[in-house]
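User: My advisor, Dr. K., asked me to get a structural model of this assembly before our group meeting. I'm new to this, so sorry if the format is off. These are the inputs:
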Amino acid sequence: MAENLYRFSKAMIIDDSATDRYIAEYYLRKFFIAAFVIAQSSAIEALKYLKEFADNPDELPEIIFLDIRMPLMDGFEFLREYEKLPSSVLNYCNVVMVSSTIDPDDHERIKENHFIKYFINKPLNKEKLLELSAAVKA
Amino acid sequence: MFNFTLQNPYSFLIAFIPALLSFTLFFYILFALPRNKLVNVFALLTFTGALWQISDSFQRIADTANAADFWDSIFSISWIFIGPLCLHFALLYTRAIKSNYSRFYIPFLYAPGFLFYALYEMHYYEHIFQPIPFWGWGNFHNQNPIDIAQVYWVSTLVILTLVLLIIYTLKIKNDKLLKKQSLLITIGLGIPAVIGIVTQAIFPIIFHLAPIPVTSTFMVVLSLTTVIALKKYKLFSVSDLMQNETLIDSMPIIVFSVSTEKRITYMNNFALKTFGLNKKDISIINVKKLFNFETIEEEKQIDAIFESAITDGEIVNIEFTLNTTEGKRNVILSCNPVVNNKHVQAILFAARDITELKRSHQLLQKREAMLQEAQKLSHIGSWEWDILNDVVIWTDELYRMFGYQPGEIPIKYETYLDKIHIEDRERVNNIIQRAYLDHQHFTFYHRVQKNKETEVIVYARGEVLVDKNNNVIRMNGTAQDVTELKMKEDMLKRQNEELQKINTELDKFVYSVSHDLRAPLTSMLGIVEIAEEETEAGDMHRLLQLLKSNIKKLDKFILDILDHSRNARMEIKNEEINFVEIINSITESLNYKSSLNERMVEVRTNIQGNVRFCSDKNRVAIVLNNLISNAIKYADPKAINPFVEIKISVNDEVANIVVEDNGIGIDKAFYEKIFEMFYRASENSTGSGLGLYIVKETLKKLNGTIKVESEKGKGSLFYVSIPNNKQTDNG
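Assistant: The format is fine. Below is the predicted structure of the whole assembly, which you can bring to the meeting.
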């Protein structure tokens, strides 16, 4: 019941910075965007999770906030592996890229990748998240 | 004496009518033929003939023998001198004896005539006049030996004349007209000669018959035919027609003659003018003054020429210099000994001015040398291919370029192809074949195997020449050794590529650095905003606000540095600019609240002009961003409705942007300084000092301008113009 207040039941945040994960979680909960936030500190771990719960939509996040710059596997590399996931995941999850990048190359790659539904600049704030969730929900 | 008895008029008329005709011919000759020795003698001959005819006509109808004798004596000179005159004429006509010797034969020719005439007039022997049936009185020359000798003399001369003319006519092989002329004259003489000798020499003297005095009548045949021959076939040569001196006198060539004692005896008008002399001075002048001697050798040369001309009659042509009124002139000098009477009488000098010719020849040589030098220095050779005769001409530099000594071997198209690198041969041949067909200019590069070790790169160009029937006559062009150039070009290309690579790497580095600098800042900002949300307490709130503003300041600084770096290094990328879009995204991302005035600053835009505007989008955005954010930042705290107005008008050449605000304004003293790096014109400034510096640098890169007008306390106007690059749109 409490879950109906929230726009999404589950959201995932993939970011190596603890601060940024904290900020994301704070806003998602505070403004009733997501009931539950799956925090992943590495893209590899995130893929493992998605693979594991591929057939379990209850455990899958409706929205995935993906950071670009991460050690070991960055956001784009994650997306290459993400494409190979079963369609049950691809059809259910929506990827939103989050970054403080101003590199126009990054912006190009983001535009070209059709798995990325939205892009927001850090830092996250209320307005951006509300706007974003409306766009994703539609 | 003056009584005439006409037994019959015919004997008179047969002589008189020809006489009239002869006189007419005589005057005609004087009028219609050119006057030279030949014609003069012929005229005299005709006149003499006429006199003889008059003599005969009156003689025949005289009253008495004495009267006949009288008339005969008056005109006898005519028939006595007919012989020598005929022979003289023939000698002149056939040019049998050189005119040098004329002074010899003329006296011998005529002298006996005078003797005979004297004796005849003196009546040394009796003149026998008897009536001849039909004819009247006739002279019978058959008694006295002197009389007979006289007749034989005249006859011999006439026979000689005839023989001379016959031989001459037969000798003419090639000249058809001359043969016709000569034949006519020969016949013209032959008729009266034969008839005359038979009727008036042979009949009376050998056969003791009455003479038939028809010779004089038939003389007119000679006059008539010769006039026709000379007039119809006018074969007179130059020396027959002109006084030699008038010809030479007027020629534009220097002619002067010098005696063997080195005295100038003749100088034509042109020479007189050239040397600046008068006719009366020439014999006094030292002939050596005319020649220009640079060295003793040259003077000796002229002396030697002189000597050999006098002693050996040697004709010499040399190049020399003469002293003229216009200074030294180069001439071709011709030295001809004039031989007369077996001795060299004078030396004839003729000189043709070749100064200009020499000058242009030297100039040509110099130009040739310069061209050679130029070709050598720039490693360009020229070639020409005469296609009709398949002759190829190469300049020296081209030979060297292909690894030959200049002129070492004759060049054919095949030789050329052989030297081309085997991989390029087909391509080159195709290009040239195509040019032959379509007559277009062509350029191409190819490699040449200069020698075993060296390969060069040649840049060749050529054009095709066609005649008016569109057939190819020849091809010509140049070829340049561009090996060095190509190497430098390649090196430059490589350096450029490397620089680009370095630039890209630097870009990536800058982004990475800036990203890593900014990431913690954005995180910090996020935390501060959360803390702000959770805190109501005034102090904490205030502290958090200060923290936030510092974070933002640092972030802005990093972004500014990034902008500055990108403006300096990145290429201009032209695309169509939508000002509305840019300004909107600026206002979205900006904080509307100024630092001093809690009221919202109103942002107004006014965009005019339907013309497309193209420029570098990022840079235009940077300019507008900085100006607008400045206007907001420095709004007047005391102003009731602070605003910033952006007026943009676009035309084909430029976009004029005016950013106007009613903020705190800038003192005139700081107009220049505000554009300096890190300069802030107000104590209240919270900016980095980079904003306007970046704007100025960015506009410089775009070839735009900026100007400020401001009054402290009233507001500011920034006038910006950016060129419209709509022709070079590569977006």
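One thing worth pointing out at the meeting: Chain B touches chain A through 16 residues (CB under 8 Å).

User: Perfect, thanks a lot.
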